[in-house]
Design brief:
Layout lengths: L4 E5 L5 E4 L5 E6 L4 H10 L1 H17 L10 E4 L2 E8 L6 E3 L4 E5 L6 H28 L5 E5 L6 E3 L4 E5 L7 H16 L5 H10 L3 H10 L7
Parallel strand pairs: 1-3, 5-7, 8-10
Antiparallel strand pairs: 2-3, 4-5, 6-7, 9-10
Length: 223
């Protein structure tokens, strides 16, 4: 029997979500019986197992970091090789010749320091890019915040506040733009209705391709 997590809500249909850790989340309407849910999952077993295998393969591909010279880190999809230099004070920076340069002090807690640097990069990069795109398409938002979400790239509150995961800046620029446009459209259309996707197609004709790419490559966001 397949393991899964159930989330009930005021939706009209059943939705299956294979998460980046290969677990399965099943979103169902109130009142739907567990028997029906299990039959539905069984019907979709081939698709579920295919998706789980893809995520498991990605997990094996993106192995835990070693934090050694030459290890590659991505910023807006561009590769930077880790370069460790002498220094008793924690310092970290991107160089013009494609290196992520850190001092030896950072090796006391490399994940902590590098994540901190990604957050700072995200604050500058995502905020600046969101403002640019919003101006082009005529959207106005209340604020932009950067969070640590692992499975949700962005969100838009009812008050017009935009939230983005700092992990998004590991992805290529066109994927960052996709998430930004997605959340900007939510300022106008709160749900994922046909009207929402029609608007996405108008602003970004290849949004389906970008969305699919992000789902398949979400393992890249692991440090």
């Amino acid at each position: 029997m397949m393991n899964y997590k159930i989330i009930r809500s005021k939706r009209k249909t059943i939705a299956l979500q294979v998460n980046s850790d290969a677990t399965l989340t099943v979103r169902i309407p109130y009142g739907v019986s567990m028997g029906y849910v299990e039959r539905f999952i069984e019907e979709k077993r081939t698709w579920i197992e295919k998706k789980q295998a893809q995520f498991s393969e990605l997990k094996a591909k993106y192995k835990p970091r070693q934090y050694v010279n030459g290890e590659e880190f991505l910023f807006a999809g561009k590769p930077y090789e880790l370069e460790i230099v002498p220094g008793s004070t924690a310092r970290i920076a991107l160089t013009t010749d494609g290196r992520l340069r850190i001092t030896e002090k950072c090796l006391d807690a490399p994940k902590h320091y590098i994540e901190w640097f990604y957050r700072q990069f995200a604050k500058r990069h995502i905020k600046a890019r969101t403002k640019e795109i919003a101006e082009v398409f005529g959207y106005k938002f209340a604020s932009i915040k950067i969070n640590s979400a692992k499975t949700r790239w962005g969100s838009c509150s009812m008050r017009g506040n935009l939230n983005f995961s700092w992990r998004l800046v590991i992805m290529p620029e066109e994927m960052i733009d996709y998430v930004i446009v997605h959340e900007l459209v939510h300022l106008e259309i709160k749900d994922h209705s046909k009207r929402f996707y029609a608007r996405m197609s108008e602003l970004m004709p290849d949004h389906r391709r970008r969305e699919k790419w992000l789902k398949v490559n979400s393992g890249m966001s692991t440090l």
